[in-house]
Amino acid sequence: MSKKILALLLGLTLCLSLAACGGDTADTAETTGDSAESGDTAETTTTLTVAASPTPHAVILEACVPLLAEQGIELVINQYDDYVVPNTAVEDGDEDANYFQHLPYLEEFNETRGTHLVDVAGVHIEPMGIYAGRVESLEDLPDGAVIGVPNDPTNEGRALLLLEAQGLITLDDSSNLSATPSNIVDNPKGLKFEEIEAQTLPSSRPDLDLAVINSNYALGAGLNPTTDALAIESSDSPYVNVLVVKEGNENNEAIQALVEALHSDTIRDFINEEFDGAVVPAF
To answer: What is the C-alpha separation between 213 and 209, in angstroms, rounded?
Structure first.
């Protein structure tokens, strides 16, 4: 009889234990359910990736980060040191947009490479400048001097037009943005031209008499176009730097939000204060 009572007591204890465990499991499930429900109502963040030259483009984009964050857009800036990969990355869908180039370069790139890239906003102008190498002034430039110019078609033409504006050469067509040394019809000093990768021109100056350098690479090398250049493009330069996307993505909401940020008074003031005339807003 005592054995039956003992078995009954053990059975009752086991039932109570199982009931207690079942209560704990229900509480945990309810908590997990609350967490999941909370996650469903959390704000979603849109990520926008933009390829850019380190300066001034990436610097300007950094100033846009808090403006976009207010709209739930995370702006991710990926820096590149060349003029090709940022375009192929957008064409291939690896980047949402890029910001590093002027319109003539974009048009030439599309034509020669068969890409489908379009500009969605003009942002700024970087006046190209002539910088000293072995020669400290344009007046001291000797006959047969060697001048370094960018080796990509549009920037080389731009450099030659700047040299023409200083009276150093004459081109057969001063409206030809893709001029090369073969278009020079008058070269009284017998100047020689070294066609060099744009990004390496600053470091090549010790081997050149003069170098014509894009402002983004000049700034990256610690040169101030407004104080260090021997001559600089006028403010009516047609080489406006643009925000670029692949055709069909022009009306993407995040892209349009970035356009609005880049064209804001906040960014205009930032460009003027940060670069002190070396970069000029174009809006």
So the answer is: 13
